[in-house]
């Protein structure tokens, strides 16, 4: 009787392990004070970089009260072929570059007001130093601007008070021509940066 139970429990444990390893969501997180204050990970040949920059342009997770900071999110193609990139749906996510604390949501530094209707080809080329790079300060003096086929307006966020905050979002990125089967789709990728205003 005991060998049957042992075999059965071994099989159940093996199936649970296989099921857990098949879950493909990627979760990348920075903690306050991490020595390397940059999330930089490659998924399916695409390199994602997400960080906060201090006023000197350096990645950081700790800022002084009264100091502005800038979000940097970039996508680089490390595959051996150029990929069409028309999927800017992450602009529309309420969580994309939103700041929160455990008790409150402070919003985003911008509102998406539309897309540029241009029909030009949009490629993420497989060349060194060719990347999509989205930079936006928390407090942004610009009224409106255009960046990578998106039109934005500033929400004129006030500088944050002392405290602990985070920014996080999740997205499955798609590379391909519009209305056609994508050439590459990542699994859901989750990014989170914890930071502090001192």
Q: Would you summarize the structure shown here?
A:
The protein has 198 residues and is mainly beta. It has one helix spanning 2-22; strands spanning 26-30, 38-43, 46-53, 62-63, 70-77, 83-84, 99-100, 105-107, 110-115, 123-124, 131-137, 144-147, 150-154, 163-171, 174-175, 184-185, 189-197.
Walk me through the structure.
This protein has 198 residues and is mainly beta. It has one domain (26-197). 11% of the residues lie in helices and 41% in strands. The chain has one helix at 2-22, and strands at residues 26-30, 38-43, 46-53, 62-63, 70-77, 83-84, 99-100, 105-107, 110-115, 123-124, 131-137, 144-147, 150-154, 163-171, 174-175, 184-185, 189-197. The strands form 6 sheets. Strands 1, 4, 14 and 17 form a 4-stranded mixed beta sheet that branches. A 4-stranded antiparallel beta sheet has the order 2-3-5-11, with no helix packed on it. Residues 5-23 have low confidence and may be disordered.
Helix/strand-derived category reads mainly beta
The total of helices stands at 1
H/E series = HEEEEEEEEEEEEEEEEE
Q: Could you give a short account of the major beta sheet? A: 4 strands, mixed
The number of E-state strands comes to 17
Instruction: Report the radius of gyration as a whole number of Å.
Output: 20 Å
What is the overall silhouette? globular
Distance between the termini: 63 Å
Q: Approximately how much helix is present in the residues?
A: 10-25%
What amount of the residues lies in strands? 35-45%
């Amino acid at each position: 009787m005991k060998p049957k139970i042992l075999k059965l429990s071994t099989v159940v444990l093996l199936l649970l392990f296989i099921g857990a390893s098949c879950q493909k969501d990627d979760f990348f997180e920075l903690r306050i004070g991490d020595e390397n204050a940059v999330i930089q990970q490659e998924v399916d040949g695409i390199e994602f970089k997400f960080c906060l920059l201090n006023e000197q342009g350096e990645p950081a997770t700790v800022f002084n009260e009264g100091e502005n900071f800038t979000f940097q999110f970039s996508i680089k193609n490390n595959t051996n072929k150029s990929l069409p990139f028309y999927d800017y749906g992450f602009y529309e996510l309420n969580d994309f570059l939103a700041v929160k604390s455990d008790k409150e949501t402070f919003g985003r530094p911008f509102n998406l007001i539309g897309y540029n209707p241009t029909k030009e080809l949009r490629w993420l080329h497989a060349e060194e130093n060719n990347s999509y790079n989205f930079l936006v300060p928390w407090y942004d003096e610009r009224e409106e601007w255009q960046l990578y086929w998106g039109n934005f307006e500033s929400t004129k966020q006030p500088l944050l008070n002392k405290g602990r905050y985070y920014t996080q979002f999740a997205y499955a990125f798609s590379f391909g021509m519009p209305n056609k089967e994508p050439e590459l789709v990542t699994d859901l990728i989750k990014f989170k940066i914890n930071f502090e205003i001192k």
